Amino acid sequence: MLKEIINKQISELRKLWDNKQELLFQLLNLAMIVFSALMIWKGLMFLTKSESPVVVVLSGSMEPAFQRGDILFLNNQDNPIRIGEIVVFKIKDRDIPIVHRVLKVHENGEGEVELLTKGDNNRIDDRSLYAPGQLWLRREDILGRAVGTLRYVGMVTIMLNDYPMLKYVLVGLMGLFVLTNKEG
């Protein structure tokens, strides 16, 4: 069945290749989809004041509050962060953000507020995760605080990262379906 669908799409792609005007129209359609997604992402970044307004929980360190694969929606407004809030932060020279709860808030000698975090399912605080020599998180380390969640929807993202070939196949198939779609 899947083979039939793929063969049909390839046949449609060959027909499309012969009709250059239709091919151009479909390529523009694909570009509009990509740019629309990018504009939505940039709009979310602006509204939430977060460089990453949506993140996927990648580990079990926040169980039972959040499970691996949950999607979190973030907001990074300027109001003070309080003990007990769940924040997403980024460590210098690490690509993957961390989702943990604020354990302590204190003011350093320069009047800046600093945070100590801990995963709900971890035994100790996060100081061992911070950059070497860093004992506290600063406001600029925070990507945002969790304001909403979608349970397990992010498992798709985790699977695509765990199996890169699956990602390439799915992206290729989606592009093929968009190009050969006659609606629009």
UniProtKB/TrEMBL annotation:
The chain positions of domain Peptidase S24/S26A/S26B/S26C read 43-130
Give UniProt keywords alphabetically: Endoplasmic reticulum, Hydrolase, Membrane, Protease, Signal-anchor, Transmembrane, Transmembrane helix
**GO molecular function, one example?**
serine-type endopeptidase activity
Asked if the keyword Hydrolase belongs to this entry, the reply reads yes
Please identify the protein, giving its name as recorded.
Signal peptidase complex catalytic subunit SEC11
Family (UniProt):
Belongs to the peptidase S26B family.
Where in or outside the cell it occurs: the entry states: Endoplasmic reticulum membrane
Could you tell me the membrane topology recorded for this protein?
A: Single-pass type II membrane protein
Instruction: Give any single GO term for biological process.
Output: signal peptide processing
Which InterPro entries is this protein grouped with?
LexA/Signal_pep-like_sf, Pept_S26A_signal_pept_1_CS, Pept_S26A_signal_pept_1_Ser-AS, Peptidase_S24_S26A/B/C, Peptidase_S26, Peptidase_S26B
Function text: Catalytic component of the signal peptidase complex (SPC) which catalyzes the cleavage of N-terminal signal sequences from nascent proteins as they are translocated into the lumen of the endoplasmic reticulum. Specifically cleaves N-terminal signal peptides that contain a hydrophobic alpha-helix (h-region) shorter than 18-20 amino acids.
Family matches, as CDD domains: S26_SPase_I
Q: Which NCBIfam families match?
A: sigpep_I_arch (TIGR02228)
GO CC terms on record? Answer: signal peptidase complex
Catalyzed reactions: Cleavage of hydrophobic, N-terminal signal or leader sequences from secreted and periplasmic proteins
Entry keyword annotation includes Magnesium: no
The UniProt transmembrane annotation reads: 23-41
UniProt enzyme class: hydrolase
Q: What is its EC number?
A: 3.4.21.89
